[in-house]
Each structure stands twice: as structure tokens, then as C-alpha cells.
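Reviewer comment 2.1 asked that we show a complete input and output for one of the modelled complexes. We chose the calcium ion case, as it is the one discussed in the main text.
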Amino acid sequence: MLSDKKRECCQIIWNAAQPAVRGPCLRPQCYTANGADYRGTQNQTSQHAGKPCLFWNETFEHPYNTLKYPNGEGGLGEHNYCRNPDGDVSPWCYIAEHEDGIYWKYCEIPSCRMPGNLGCYKDHGEPPTLTGTSETSNKLTIQACISSCRSQQFKFAGMESGYACFCGNNPDYWRYGEAASTECNSVCFGDHTQPCGGDGRVILFDTLIGACGGNYTSATAVIYSPDFPDTYGTGKVCYWTIQVPGASQILFSFVLFEIKDATDMVELLDGYTYHVLARFNGKNRPPHTFNISLDFVILYFFSDEINQAQGFAIRYRAVKDNVHQNKIAANQTLSEKRNEHTNFSINTARSSKILYVITTSPSHPSSSMPGNVISKWTIYSLTALLILSVTAILAKIFLHVLCTQCGTLHFSVTAAGEIWSIFYRPSTSISIFKKQLRT
Ligand SMILES: [Ca+2]
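Response of the prediction step:
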């Protein structure tokens, strides 16, 4: 069982706003549910008397080796670290053959637990580890269970035996004891690349994972794309607010970014003005790390109807003000401001250093950001209604006067008496849609 000190620490790592007990206090090295992104250096199946792993460049009698995957596919190389190159439910490695013919084993890697995965726990049934509702499904996935629990207002979701889903709010879910992560390696019946607990073992997740939207106020957290760890759904429009009062800047890091087409996108907006600060998609991938000199940022995600993908995991950390940091930020702003837009649009390499500081002065020419074709208007939420009404009238007059050849646009001059509505869409700033209101 974890010490209280460890619990405290881990709440901070995941989401300090939630009072729940959290997993072990290690810096997470995995952001996928099955550790396919694990690139750590554990080279035995367990840190406690585990079997030593064989080197991937010596396992030519097996399907996975560096001859077959010479370019580092799946993280393979001239080493003997645990990896998950085949979409299994957990990292594993080949071992010297056992008497009973076992030639590979899953690795128990404490640091390979995605934030929001609360761990693998024993379940004795009466009462169950999670005491809310339960159901079974032969198409169970992690997110299918999480979604079900989230829609019932539960904070925790647990999967067991591959097909059972438990929901609950009881923070004593650890009362039967925690189990090794390798005891929660039953495949989900609905997705054989995901772990869904085990026999008498329930794998627990925070239901914030994969939510379409949310409000974050903790100093640090990880936000996942909608439906994570499943692929994101079609037609998603999601917002997350990240507001950390007193922060001088927020450091962002995409620890996972798998968006394949150019129409699905992730944006970061100034929380106060709704200006789009950055837009990333399959064509314009994000830098690994960047920071925004604000204490209020909105994360936006949009997906169209085709080409779904794994999505993203973004980690943020708010930095409080102090004189030293102010100096650094100011220097970076001055020296890098000139190039920041260029950097943003052309830099697709993953980098571990901070590339630029995004400033948000009122004169900031947001229309020069990549992808912003339409001119940008700022609408403040409290006055939006008033501005919309006035603009609607102006737009109508403007169109009547100037727009007699508007066949190429998606709207035309209306007959007298029709009412225009203007809708604000963050990705495109302002879009005008004709909406004839009939009574
Ligand atoms: Ca798409």
C-alpha cells in the first residue's frame, strides 16, 4: 500500500483539484494505456527478482528483433529494454526459455502508467472495489467503461476480466490492496490492444480521461483527446479551460500527438480574448514543448467525419511569477518575438527545449498565425450578445449595399425582413451564417 506522502505527491501530478488517492509518485513515462510509447530502460520483467530481458538484436528466432525492425520501429534497438512493438496490452520482452515453454513475459514497470490510470487493484466482490454501478459488455473498451461511468457522474471507472465495467466514487478502492500491473493484463473484449483488468483484478481510471471538455485549475495536469485511449470520435468539438490564477506562464508539452489529417485540429486560445495562439493538425505538428505567457488558456479540439486517429495527450505546468523568471520571459519575448510566427508555422521537429514565448499584447496580429484566413474579431463573452446584434444589423446593411454579386459566397442578399445571425467559431474567428428565423 502506498504511503500518504506518495499519495499526496501524485495528486499533484495528475490533478490537484480532485481529492482522490492517486497512483505511485513516479514521473510518468507512458501516456498510452498499453505502454506502446514506453522508451525507458527497465531491462527485466520486474524490478523485484524479475527475469532478465534478452537483447532485441539477439532474438532472431522470434518475430521481433532488430533484423526485422532495423529502424527503431516500436522502440526496438540494440538493447534489452521492455517494449511493446506489437500493440499488446503492456510492454514485454523475450526471456531465456522456461521449462514450460514460456519465452516472453510482460514487464512490471511502475513508471509506465499513464496519468489518470490509478492502478491495478484486487477485487473480492462483496462489496466490489468500486461500489457504484456495474455492467458487462463483449465490446468493452477502456473508454466505453469510462464514458458510461462519467455519464453517471462517477469519478472512477474500473475494468475487470476484459468485459466487466464498474463505476464508483468511493476513495477506498484500494482497501483490498493494490496488485502488480502485470495482473491487469487481460485484453479488453472490444479492443485487444488495451488492458481491461484481470481475474479478480480491476484496473482503475479517472473518468476525466477522454472527456470532451473540462475545467482545469490545478498547477499541472494531463489532458487527453476525447475518447482516449480509444481513437477520437467523429464530429467532436471540445473545449478545456486551463486557468491557474497567479501563473505568469503555462508550459505545454504534447507527450502524444497522433492526428493524421489536416482538418482535425488542436488549438490553443487566449482565455481572455479567444485569439487563436496556435493551431496544430496532421500537417502542422506541434513542437514538443512551448509556453504561453498567460494564466488562462483554452484548449480546443475539432474532428471532422473521416480519418480518426489516436489523438493527443498534452501536459501543462503553470509557472508562478518571480523576478528571475520575469527577466527570462521578457528576454525571450524580445529576442524571439520577431520570429515566433515563422517558428510556429515551420518548426515541426520535436524538441525538448522551449522554443518561444507566445505574447498576447492587444496589438498582437493574430491573423498572421497559420491557418487564419478570415480576419479576426474579438468578442468578449459578457458583451457578445450586444455585439452580435449590432453586427448583424451592420452586416445586413453592408450586404445590401455592397454585395449584389455575392454568388460565390455561401450566402446571398436576403429579402427584407429576414434576420441574420452571426455565430462565433473559435477556429475561424467569425463566420457568418444566414439563418432565416421563421416564427
Ligand atoms: Ca478527420
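Residues 217 and 244 are 5 Å apart (CA to CA). We note this here for comparison with the apo prediction described in Section 3.2.
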